[in-house]
Amino acid sequence: MAISTRPALPRPATSVSGSPGGSHAKPSSARRWNWFGGGFGWLWLVVVMVPIYWIVITSFKTRANYYAENPLAPPTQPTLENYRQVIEADFTRYFANSVIVTAGATLPAVLISFMAAYAIVRGSGASRFLRSANGVFLMGLAIPLQAVIIPIYLIIIRLQMYDTLLAIILPSIAFAIPLSVLVLANFIRDVPKELFESMRLDGATEWGTLWRLAFPLTRPALVTVIIYQGLGIWNGFILPLILTQSPEQRTLPLGLWSFQGQYGVNVPAVLASVVLTTLPVLICYAIGRRQLLSGLTAGFGK
Amino acid sequence: MTALAPPPVRVADRSTSTGGRSKSVVWMVLPALVMFAAFGIIPLLGVLGLSFTQWDGIGAINPAGADNWFSVLSEPGLLHALWVTFLIMALSWVFQTPVSLLIGVFLASRKRYRGFLAVLYFIPLLLSSAAIAITFSALLNPNFGLGAGLGVEFLNQDWLGQSNLAIATLIFVVSWQFIPFHSLIYQGGVRQIPTSMYEAAQIDGAGRVRTFFSITLPQLKYTIITSSTLMVVGSLTFFDLIFVLTAGGPGDATRVLALEMYQTGFRANLMGPASVIAVILVLVGLGLALLLRRLGGGSASDSQLEGA
């Protein structure tokens, strides 16, 4: 039922280092300049960077200059006025909401996924229940969030949680579980069984083994999963759109959308809000980039 | 990044379990299972149930038999939304796959500056779909966007105002957002092709193009299927991007299934018919996932597992 086209998933340690075997993939291509691929690569860089450059420079322009100047020229009279305006317009509240929702959903989701993954790897041999649970999670990968949003809306209303941050957090946790369990289980599965055996001989409980053996060994995968799920939840749009109503409960993506409605003509201010919502993510990316990129390439590669 | 579809799955192989024969771990799966059942499995059954009811989103829920199904299936709106969904899916695949493949092959060599490029390529993936949609609707604005400001005739069009142009623009924006991700997948795929194959090709005197078509491309078969699955299933979740960028317009030119569901349920307050559309969305998603899995070849992928 799950979309399992191919069994590619992250493997720990060696693949996370980003250089399996340390060998060069294509020695022959090192000698001649690859005009086609190279040209394409640089062209794509331009395509990717021009809009980003434009967002940043425009966010520092005054409205008058924005309409008068060449759109790709740096601002002649750079101003922080747009940022001031956005921050004064409830940005900090949306920001705080996004932090609460992201942290409140990502950490519990990864934690319970980690426990589930451990149980599935350690116990599937003996327990039919665990094998079925694993099957349920795999099937979950194929459920699109949009398709079940109406019943979720109904459940949230019945739980009297409509228009609260918890209404966003709970479904976010649920939809982070399947992929997290899958990735983490694949990592835990590669822990040598001798290590589990020796822990057991030393008298460790399963709970102790989970924390003192599996947790440290799975850390690269845990970080990748936390970043990946955190990013998804931070950028989530449909849950806040449908499950909240008042401006006090808005998260950043929804706040952006309402900014656009309010300041539609004030493009520099709208773009300043785009920069402000992306900045925290960019900072995290700068810190965790190596981990995330190698985790993803190792995870999805052949 | 809600638009990212899940990656392919390695089914737990019992034979190589880590020696665990312990039943004492069973309880550890419960928190995750309960959460997922409450907000994943039960809603999945619930949406099927709701498709046979009448509900305005606030008041009482009344049974409606198969009425919703008859009315939705006989409406031209659904067919149109299905068509737009598949059109956007197909076009975004056709455009994204070759570009991602080329860039992925390019990135796979271990040159420093290419690593740097990969870092920059990743940036669009950090932006929310809402931010991307807002940026491009400003950038492409016919009155004060990039085209008008630069005075370039070609750029200065009403990109989101005409049906065909709006779809083309959407494909471009989707590609801008996701080609970086797929090129990373291909980069990982290329790096795992054994070096010896390239050495052998070199000894045989194969040129770059020949090597690409005879070795790189066939060896990437499963990577292509992985990436395509993510693209195709992921394209069902472009909801937020389309919602903010075009809101389905101009007219209903970009009104995809998910948007049709939202408009019917949360704007027109017809939750029953909206649930019917949601069930169709699930069926389309599952059908595509299974189809692509079949294309991948079940047995072939099993043997790949051992070799990987």
From TrEMBL, chain A:
<dbReference type="InterPro" id="IPR035906">
    <property type="entry name" value="MetI-like_sf"/>
</dbReference>
<protein>
    <submittedName>
        <fullName>Carbohydrate ABC transporter membrane protein</fullName>
    </submittedName>
</protein>
<feature type="domain" description="ABC transmembrane type-1">
    <location>
        <begin position="95"/>
        <end position="288"/>
    </location>
</feature>
<feature type="transmembrane region" description="Helical">
    <location>
        <begin position="33"/>
        <end position="56"/>
    </location>
</feature>
<dbReference type="GO" id="GO:0005886">
    <property type="term" value="C:plasma membrane"/>
</dbReference>
<comment type="similarity">
    <text>Belongs to the binding-protein-dependent transport system permease family.</text>
</comment>
<feature type="transmembrane region" description="Helical">
    <location>
        <begin position="165"/>
        <end position="188"/>
    </location>
</feature>
<keyword id="KW-0812">Transmembrane</keyword>
<dbReference type="InterPro" id="IPR000515">
    <property type="entry name" value="MetI-like"/>
</dbReference>
<keyword id="KW-1003">Cell membrane</keyword>
<feature type="transmembrane region" description="Helical">
    <location>
        <begin position="263"/>
        <end position="287"/>
    </location>
</feature>
<dbReference type="GO" id="GO:0055085">
    <property type="term" value="P:transmembrane transport"/>
</dbReference>
<feature type="transmembrane region" description="Helical">
    <location>
        <begin position="133"/>
        <end position="159"/>
    </location>
</feature>
<feature type="transmembrane region" description="Helical">
    <location>
        <begin position="221"/>
        <end position="243"/>
    </location>
</feature>
<feature type="transmembrane region" description="Helical">
    <location>
        <begin position="99"/>
        <end position="121"/>
    </location>
</feature>
<feature type="region of interest" description="Disordered">
    <location>
        <begin position="1"/>
        <end position="28"/>
    </location>
</feature>
<keyword id="KW-0813">Transport</keyword>
<keyword id="KW-1133">Transmembrane helix</keyword>
<dbReference type="Pfam" id="PF00528">
    <property type="entry name" value="BPD_transp_1"/>
</dbReference>
<keyword id="KW-0472">Membrane</keyword>
From TrEMBL, chain B:
<feature type="domain" description="ABC transmembrane type-1">
    <location>
        <begin position="82"/>
        <end position="292"/>
    </location>
</feature>
<keyword id="KW-1133">Transmembrane helix</keyword>
<feature type="transmembrane region" description="Helical">
    <location>
        <begin position="159"/>
        <end position="179"/>
    </location>
</feature>
<dbReference type="Pfam" id="PF00528">
    <property type="entry name" value="BPD_transp_1"/>
</dbReference>
<dbReference type="GO" id="GO:0005886">
    <property type="term" value="C:plasma membrane"/>
</dbReference>
<comment type="similarity">
    <text>Belongs to the binding-protein-dependent transport system permease family.</text>
</comment>
<keyword id="KW-1003">Cell membrane</keyword>
<dbReference type="GO" id="GO:0055085">
    <property type="term" value="P:transmembrane transport"/>
</dbReference>
<feature type="transmembrane region" description="Helical">
    <location>
        <begin position="115"/>
        <end position="139"/>
    </location>
</feature>
<protein>
    <submittedName>
        <fullName>Binding-protein-dependent transport protein</fullName>
    </submittedName>
</protein>
<feature type="transmembrane region" description="Helical">
    <location>
        <begin position="270"/>
        <end position="292"/>
    </location>
</feature>
<dbReference type="InterPro" id="IPR035906">
    <property type="entry name" value="MetI-like_sf"/>
</dbReference>
<keyword id="KW-0472">Membrane</keyword>
<feature type="transmembrane region" description="Helical">
    <location>
        <begin position="24"/>
        <end position="45"/>
    </location>
</feature>
<dbReference type="InterPro" id="IPR051393">
    <property type="entry name" value="ABC_transporter_permease"/>
</dbReference>
<dbReference type="InterPro" id="IPR000515">
    <property type="entry name" value="MetI-like"/>
</dbReference>
<keyword id="KW-0813">Transport</keyword>
<feature type="transmembrane region" description="Helical">
    <location>
        <begin position="81"/>
        <end position="108"/>
    </location>
</feature>
<keyword id="KW-0812">Transmembrane</keyword>
<feature type="transmembrane region" description="Helical">
    <location>
        <begin position="230"/>
        <end position="250"/>
    </location>
</feature>
